[in-house]
Amino acid sequence: MPSTPQVITQALAREYLARVDVPQILRKLFRDLAAGQAVQPAQQLVEFPRGAGDFINYLGVLAEDGVYGIKTSPYIVREQGPLVTAWTLLMSMQTGQPLLLCDAGELTTARTAATTAVAVDALAPLTANRLAIIGSGKVAQAHLHYVKGLRDWQSISLYSPSLNEDAETVSLLKNIEPRLNIVDSREAVIQDADVIMLCTSSAGPVIDPSSLRKPALITSISTNAPRAHEVPPQSLNDMQVFCDYRLTTPGSAGEMLIAAEQHGWDRSTIAGDLPDLLSGKVPRPDYDRHVFFRSIGLGLEDIALANAIYRLSR
User: Fold this and answer.
1) Fewest 10 Å CB contacts: which of 31, 52, 112, 300?
2) Do 281 and 309 share a domain, yes or no?
């Protein structure tokens, strides 16, 4: 008999996610990908007629857990500004029935930040002690939460142009990490940093890696604007490039698309992805030059977290 999926609201998803080890769930996911126990197709972009917006489908299969799913995220053009939502549907591979329908807002924030944290742990020098963050929204706050304990940070600094008049956000950030230092310029936050996390909604470059005084790990998530990128595309030719999943990321990441078309960059030069790193296929990089990690967000990440919520809710 058909079953009705359990519906998880954004508030309920937030409660459940606080009770699971999100980075560890993602580590298992990437090891499953390396072992052939998971499937991650490319994103599917479908445009609405007459410029009314679009939607992106993120698909994935977790064979060991017996589930597959789809996250669908519409971008709806409106006079008062675009509306973006996202929902994740979890399905059983045994019965073919829906198990869970979850508001994906909290899933997206958690998996985006935790994926960066997994990458920082795998890529940053063990001696890294200076962390810089650009951005201050919910995704930046989640990055701070997941990364604050990964190294013996002697300095954790953050810059966001909107913070000068936003005491509430400053208080939220300080509650996550009391040692956080709010700085007043982009240049000051990145100089001498070992790890720089770009957590913005910018459609264009936020920093130029060539301006840094020493090699650093730079992580980027970008946004859903067309071909959005947080570093100059041509800078990829001068960095060791890693990504969340090499089979899909170069086909969606803005700076990779532009670098390939205009600056002679070749996706085959990607040094590794998270399945490679977590399965030991590729080593931690040396730092003779900058290391760049790019994630686009995988459907499997949302599905893995939805599956964790489903099992917890039972």
Assistant:
1) 52
2) no
